[in-house]
Specification:
Blueprint (H helix, E strand, L loop, with lengths): L1 H4 L6 E2 L2 E5 L5 H11 L8 H9 L4 E8 L2 E11 L2 E9 L8 H15 L4 E7 L3 H10 L2 E10 L4 E9 L9
The structure holds coenzyme A.
Length: 170
């Protein structure tokens, strides 16, 4: 997990603590997804359990504010990339820079693992998230047709190249 190789990835910024997700956090992560997706979490308890079990090939980070889990990011090592499996911030805590903070963590995580890219898929209709990713430097690699099972929506396949400084010390 993160703390085993780089304590600098865990920090505290203006009352928001970034910590590793533990199994007991799963209901809190599902609560966040329910708030965002009409009362139903797209990820079951079992999916989270499986994801959190893959400690060697991924990492999940939560953002805690005054004891409440207000957001999280999931990362998985895939080929040349650290892939964002999920990123979600409670509605009341959006637009304060927390998502950007977690994307910075994703970049750091990729660099620590000598990966050249951060990748993700996002719903084609999710304009605000796509705008944020573009601002971050992600480019669109392509469209994955009919990617989301629940509504048959297309996904935008995005990639952030980390450049020549991938192996730098952070
Ligand atoms: C997408 C998501 C993770 C972004 O998280 P966030 O915490 O709102 O992200 P940020 O606050 O860093 O950035 C969002 C916007 O707020 C702005 N912002 C950042 N800090 C700010 C601040 N202190 N004050 C005002 N605005 C700020 C950013 O510039 C950005 O603006 P933009 O929309 O014009 O690009 C969040 O909206 C979310 O959980 N959405 C629902 C789930 C989802 O869509 N996940 C993505 C799946 S791929």
């Amino acid at each position: 997990m993160l703390s085993e190789y780089d304590d600098t990835l865990i920090n505290q910024t203006e009352g928001f603590h970034v910590e590793e997700v533990r199994m007991i956090d799963i209901p809190y992560l599902q609560h966040i997804l329910k708030q965002l997706y009409g009362g139903k979490s797209p990820w079951s308890y079992t999916i989270f359990l499986l994801e959190l079990s893959r400690k060697d090939s991924g990492s999940y980070l939560k953002v805690v504010y005054q004891g409440e889990v207000v957001g999280f990011i999931g990362l998985r090592l895939e080929g040349e990339a650290a892939h964002v499996t999920n990123i979600a911030i409670l509605p009341n805590y959006q637009n304060r820079g927390i998502g950007s903070m977690l994307l910075e963590k994703a970049k750091q995580y990729a660099r620590v693992h000598n990966k050249n890219y951060v990748t993700l898929e996002v719903k084609a209709s999710n304009e605000s998230a796509i705008r944020l990713y573009h601002r971050f430097g992600f480019i669109t690699k392509g469209i994955k047709r009919d990617y989301y099972r629940e509504n048959h929506e297309d996904a935008v396949d995005m990639s952030l190249y980390l450049g020549a400084d991938t192996n730098e010390e952070i």
